[in-house]
Specification:
The chain is of the alpha+beta class. The chain has helices spanning 2-19, 31-62, 79-106, 215-226, and strands spanning 116-123, 126-131, 136-138, 141-144, 149-155, 160-163, 170-173, 179-183, 189-195, 207-213. The protein has 2 domains: 2-62 and 83-106, no CATH class; 112-226, Sandwich (Immunoglobulin-like), CATH 2.60.40. Helix content is 40%, strand content 24%. The protein has a 5-stranded mixed β-sheet with strand order 3-2-1-5-8. Strands 4-10-9-6-7 form a 5-stranded mixed β-sheet. A hairpin with a 4-residue loop joins strand 2 (126-131) and strand 3 (136-138). Helix 2 (31-62) packs antiparallel against helix 3 (79-106). Bound molecules: copper (II) ion.
Length: 227
């Protein structure tokens, strides 16, 4: 009974996490491997959650004794049980470590020569974007589609964090430091960069438009900004 319930509910939870779209539609090359890992993590977590919950509810109902308030006898030294609860989590953690390393490699540097470098400065409570290769400063982040972007983040006051949910990747902007973030936008469209580190009164309003355009439109925008 318990085993069947756990199996059915686990299959449902895994099916949901492997197929449902519970994150915003991806818009970067980095999003795919990150989403893949996220689905695996949620699936494993879901199965463990189902297992605990079913056993808990089963125990509460089946082993209930209304008048017995005594403590149960102390049990120890079950080798097989101890090995099981050590080895299974160990195997899960090792598999996840390997998967995580693979994802880190996947979202790393792909084409350094072609990178568009942008200096991102965060301050209370706005963003500034500088394009040193083009001599432009802008309040919006305009990016050509399918070109790797290297963001160099810093802050003028407190710690902020740069985050575009559709890109998935995220990095802190720390005063006195330069932190790097790599992203390759893959879908033309309008997005929003959010500050993802509570940074004061107007933190929630600290957004900047992120506009991904075709390379020709990006060149046009560059010309417009320089004239
Ligand atoms: Cu902030």
């Amino acid at each position: 009974m318990v085993a069947i319930t756990v199996a059915i509910l686990s299959a449902m939870v895994v099916a949901i996490f492997l197929n449902a779209n519970f994150t915003p539609a991806p818009a970067s090359a980095q999003a795919e491997p990150i989403d893949r890992l996220l689905r695996i993590l949620f699936s494993i977590g879901g199965v463990i959650f189902v297992l605990c919950l079913v056993l808990l509810i089963y125990s509460v109902i089946v082993f209930r004794h209304p008048r017995d308030t005594e403590e149960g006898p102390p049990l120890e030294g079950n080798y097989r049980l101890e090995l099981t609860w050590t080895l299974i989590p160990l195997a899960i953690v090792l598999v996840l470590a390997v998967q995580g390393a693979a994802v880190l490699k996947d979202i790393g540097r792909a084409d350094p020569k072609n990178e568009l470098e942008i200096k991102v400065t965060a301050f209370q409570w706005a963003w500034r974007f500088e394009y040193p290769q083009y001599g432009i400063t802008s309040g919006e982040l305009r990016l050509p589609v399918n070109r790797p972007v290297l963001l160099k983040l810093t802050s003028l006051d407190v710690i902020h964090a740069f985050w575009v949910p559709q890109f998935r990747v995220k990095q802190d902007a720390v005063p006195g430091m330069e932190k790097e973030l790599l992203v390759t936008p893959t879908r033309v469209g309008s997005y929003k960069a959010w500050c993802n580190q509570l940074c004061g009164l107007a933190h929630a309003a600290m957004q900047a438009p992120v506009i991904v355009v075709e390379p020709e439109d990006f060149e046009l925008w560059v010309k417009e900004q320089r004239s």
